Amino acid sequence: MAMLTRDDAGSTDLLRLYRQMFLIRRFEEEAARSYAQGKIGGFLHLYIGQEAVAVGVNALMEPDDYFVTTYRDHGVALARGMTARACMAELYGKVTGCSKGMGGSMHMFDREHNFLGGHGIVGAHVALAAGAAWASKYRGDGRVTLCFFGDGATNIGGFHEGVSLAALWKLPIVFVCENNEYSMGTPAERTLPQRDVSKKGAAYDIPGLRFRGQDVVEVMERMREPIARARRGEGPTMVEVQTYRYRGHSMSDPGKYRTAEEVEERKKADPVRLGRIHVLGAGATEEALAALDASVEAEVADALTFADESAQPDEALLHSLVLAPNGDGDHPPPLGSYPAEQHAGAAVDADKVAVRHA
Amino acid sequence: MREIRYREAVREALAEELARDPRVFVMGEEVGYYNGAYKVTEGLLARFGPQRVVDTPIAEAGFAGIGVGAAMVGLRPVIEFMTWNFSAVAFDQILNNAAKLYQMSGGQYKVPVVFRGPNGAARQVAAQHSHSMDPFYVNIPGLYVVAPGTPRDAKGLLKTAIRDDSPVVFLEGETLYGVKGEVPEVDADECIPLGKARVAREGTDVTIVAWGRPLHTALDAARVLEESGVSCEVVDPRTLRPLDHETIVASVKKTNRCVVVHEHWEHGGTGAQIVDVVQREAFDWLDAPVLRVHNQDVPMPYAVNLENVVLPTVERVVAAVERVTYKR
Lengths: 358, 328
Description:
heterodimer, A: alpha/beta, six-stranded parallel sheet, 11 helices, 8 strands, disordered N terminus, B: alpha/beta, seven-stranded mixed sheet, five-stranded mixed sheet, 14 strands, globular
């Protein structure tokens, strides 16, 4: 999978990518319907229109790699391999959800898939993601952290401090701005003094990369080098993927700040449709695609039923999830396990150590 | 038992835990080459190397976030704020990430991080550098908040905090670093449990509850009051969240009077919480209203004469005790 290019894309791999995108699309369309029916509460931020980004990036990543994203997290969660059941049940606030119903739409987590969360505070998760990458460098475990954020996040301190530290310490992380052109309801021209987000890497002396992200194969081709660079230990890259969300910022947003014509124009480069064209071009038959589509419909329908029929979290869970039960701290790994680069005290430049003040 | 300074006790705890567990690292401004703004981390860089004693730029939100993220994936960061005043710009990382992720992830991600540094007024550094930040943190479920007043407690509680699997806000005393006290030998490995108060001085007539720097003010006041025949019991909660109701209430049931001394402002916070606990759990034992001695309700001034009247003093504690014992 990791070697997929436009030329050698096997139809099986392309089918898998297409299926993931279509699953995200259909999952979210049904989630929107459930929201309208009052089965999902709170905020619901849909990823529809941006599917190629999460799916294309994930296709290049290893199972051990870490993912951190924003509150618009269903797409990344599903691309990462989390089940439609666990994600839908979370939206329904059920104990079978990926976060036991404690997080909801904006806060999906899955330890099994190294998904460190959907995060609700804009930009704060960028520093947190740098922390996961810091741990990888400390341990020398070869993992890469993928950190998604929106164009709106690139104005806030958490973003800048996280990128600054990751660049300073050459952490194995890739920063991916999913620029969908709107910071909630405000267009980028009224929020970004520098519209080219990839240039923001220059301030931290890391490379920038900017491309349109509606075609999943294109996303994979362009993302290969930033991920490889992080894995080689050469540090982060500031990637700006230009994309577009079809729906409002959240379900409560009718999107009146943009025209219907604009949205229709953007839909011409629809990631799911482009994916379908790739699959057909690679030799898949219409029959095979119809069967695949049907399997997605069945998976989403099953997820809805599962979420509907699952139990709500028990009140006892309220108090058991405040402070963690102890145990890990009593079992340190063997000394010398890490840090990866051992520095004996003698390696420290003694001249630079401040003389003790009397 | 040997006597060492509070600063050395904190340093010993860090060194012992760094030596014990390779997952532990210390990160903050000037902790390495500079040897610590308050010399708490002196010598740690030379002993443990720059991977484990990590100097940062001035970016509290950034490196607090690094600590949270590294803790989520299994390391045990000790994040130093040069002073707790500067934690305000990292408050979001503590409130929204450290304290919330275990619950929001349905118990999948623990966040075993310790945030530590000096808290409270340092004398004549004015309004922005003189905060007792504890009221802001004690309000947050998902955190431990610890405020040791003695070298022994500082060492034993910090060791426990580093080994705990939940986030800990560890408030040292900026004016306590030079205070000496008895501490068990290096590597005695004394771990003092979180959430347990300590009776710092036994007495019969009135209970004074105090922590951090005001603990010493309370003990000084108790000595003054002893001369006039008033026997004070001084209780140090040591951990502010969770608060050890049992020890405080048991003392009040014995003395029937209570004065709470603290450095934070009047409105809210642990001081008010203790009064609430005492009135709920020891109402029938009280012979007088519970009084508090605390910072005056103003931003801290620079001028020394004014700062002296803002902070709790021995005289104000003595006066409060005299009021609850109806001697004035």
